[in-house]
C-alpha cells in the first residue's frame, strides 16, 4: 500500500513538474505592424523592441506562425545577397532577423521581413534555439 501511494505521489510530482516546465519554456513574439514593435514573452520575462516591417509596395504577412528554420547568418539571394544575421524564418522566405539599418527601426523599411537590432535578433534567436520551434509562436498583427 505504501509503495502504491509513493508511486502515485512521484507520478503526480512528475506530471506537475512537466506542466510547469512546459509553461516556463514557452516563447511568444507579438509583432505589431501598426506600432512597429515586437513584444516577446519568454517565461516570466518580457522584452519590447522596435522593428521595421514592410515599406510601401511590400507586404509583411499577418497571422500566427511557428519557426520553420533558423540561420545564424543568411544572405538573401532575392535582394542582392543582403546579410540577415540571426534569422528565424516563419513563413516561406519571411524572417525575423537583425539589420545594420538601425536608424530605420520603428518605421516600415523592409521588403517584408521583420528587422530588428542585431543584438536583439541574437537574443531572440537564442531563445528560439533554447525552447524549440514547437514551443515558439510568432504572431503578426496590425
Overview of the molecule:
This protein has helices spanning 2-24, 118-131; strands spanning 27-32, 37-42, 45-52, 63-65, 69-76, 82-91, 94-99, 114-117, 136-141. It is built from two helices and nine strands; from the N terminus they run αββββββββαβ. A hairpin with a 2-residue loop joins β6 (82-91) and β7 (94-99). The protein has a nine-stranded mixed beta sheet. The radius of gyration is 19 Å and the shape is globular. It is an alpha+beta fold and 142 residues long.
Features:
142 residues, disordered N terminus, alpha+beta, 9-stranded mixed β-sheet, globular
How many angstroms does the end-to-end distance come to? 59 Å
Q: Which band does the percent of strand residues land in?
A: 35-45%
The largest pleated sheet is described as:
9 strands, mixed
**Topology as H/E string?**
HEEEEEEEEHE
Percent helix range? 25-40%
Low-confidence parts = 2-24
Q: What is the rounded Rg?
A: 19 Å
User: How would you write the strand order of the largest sheet?
Assistant: 4-9-1-2-3-8-7-6-5
Strand tally is 9
Mean pLDDT: 88
Structural class: alpha+beta
* Mass-distribution shape: globular
How many H/I helical runs?
Answer: 2
Summarize the structure.
By secondary structure, the chain is α+β, with helices and mostly antiparallel strands.
Topology:
Blueprint: H1 2-24, E1 27-32, E2 37-42, E3 45-52, E4 63-65, E5 69-76, E6 82-91, E7 94-99, E8 114-117, H2 118-131, E9 136-141
Parallel strand pairs: 1-9, 7-8
Antiparallel strand pairs: 1-2, 2-3, 3-8, 4-9, 5-6, 6-7
Amino acid at each position: 500500500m505504501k509503495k502504491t501511494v509513493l508511486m502515485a505521489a512521484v507520478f503526480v510530482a512528475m506530471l506537475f513538474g512537466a506542466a510547469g516546465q512546459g509553461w516556463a519554456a514557452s516563447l511568444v513574439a507579438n509583432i505589431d505592424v501598426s506600432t512597429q514593435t515586437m513584444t516577446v514573452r519568454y517565461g516570466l520575462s518580457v522584452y519590447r523592441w522596435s522593428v521595421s516591417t514592410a515599406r510601401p509596395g511590400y507586404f509583411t504577412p499577418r497571422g500566427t506562425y511557428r519557426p520553420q528554420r533558423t540561420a545564424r547568418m543568411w544572405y538573401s539571394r532575392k535582394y542582392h545577397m543582403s546579410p540577415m544575421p540571426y534569422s528565424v524564418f516563419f513563413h516561406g522566405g519571411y524572417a525575423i532577423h537583425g539589420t545594420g539599418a538601425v536608424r530605420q527601426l520603428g518605421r516600415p523599411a523592409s521588403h517584408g521581413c521583420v528587422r530588428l537590432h542585431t543584438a536583439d535578433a541574437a537574443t531572440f534567436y537564442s531563445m528560439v534555439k533554447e525552447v524549440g520551434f514547437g514551443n515558439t509562436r510568432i504572431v503578426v498583427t496590425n
